[in-house]
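Human:
Care to share another protein and its fold?

Assistant:
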Amino acid sequence: MIDFLGKTIECRCGRIHSIPSIDIVCENNLSERLADFFENPLFIVDENTFSLVNIPEENTFILKDPNRVMATMENVRKILSLLKDKDYRHIVSIGSGTLTDIARYSAFISKKGFSCFPTAPSVDAYTSSVAPLLVEGVKKTLDAKIPEKILIDPEVLVNSPTDLLRAGLGDIAAKVTARLDWVLSNFLTGEDICNFVWDDIKDLLKEVMKDTKKVLQRDQSAIMKLMKTQLISGLNITIVGNSRPASGAEHLISHVLEMYQECRGKVPLFHGLQVAIGTYVTLKAYESLMQDIQFAKDKLPLEEKKKLLVDFFGIQIADEFQKIYLHKKRVEKINIEDIKKSIETLYLQYHSVLQSSLLDIGVEELFSKYDKNFIKNAIIVSTMIRDRYTVLDLFDQYEILNGFCNWFIEQL
């Protein structure tokens, strides 16, 4: 399914990349015989995914939540507590991003084997070496276990809930804005960049986005191509050692939306749907940059930004994020024309297909779920929660972020 698994590659970025050797099995009716692949496994499911597979109950732990199971440290502790009582050799997630992240981090901490059975092509978590988890109200990206096996049943993926198909398309679309942000940061801050992890996915990205409607119509070929692209995206995170190939400003916006809801005991949208929101914002930021849309300089005082952080997350978390923000990279010289030249080719290649894909999955309907002023504040807050340079940091430093936000929400 992926031809570079297990290989060692001397890359133009100056590093030698060792691609993990993951056994990917893709067969019809695989859901009926998962237990055949493991010796004494612990299957992690939720109440929805348990019904999709045939597995022994004595080897199964069902995570339950009256709303929806979330990727929290509390749920990791439930798994770790269970591992103390029985000597399971392998942890296997039966689900999409949330259950995969819970299981892979539990395997990392407990030093158990980890494998997964994806039930939707909704995220790139399956092959990733990191797990985004909510830790005491803060979304943190933690080192986690790479899977030994990925077991795929095409029929299960084709019958994924529609919102998870939409989420998968949103998560894939984000790879374009993530790349734009990485190229921008490389140009402005000198951040190291790798081209292998773009070359291995760039053509598939365009194909998947062109096939957005086919995915939503449950065309098996299009859905399997989406799944393959997710697997490669997760591998790119593993190859580089962090989430930079797959995550830029759009994911920071998503993290803000998720944390805001989760801190209040509410259930956020699926990850990829919130990422789609962030991707649309980021695309419009690049669009305004490339089209020379002028925004008046309007610097937000630090005190006002700190107040927004407190309103979103409370004083303790706000203090932590403010420290991150104050130590973020700053660019001494900003030449807009040079910046535009650095990203022009990439932007022109993907702008149209990316925008069409986002509209086809209904991104405008997703924005309607939020108050416009809340969206504006979430965009501003997103620049303060991670030490990662993006186009929104450029706007912030150039003192046009507030103007851009006002312009953007007027377009909604």
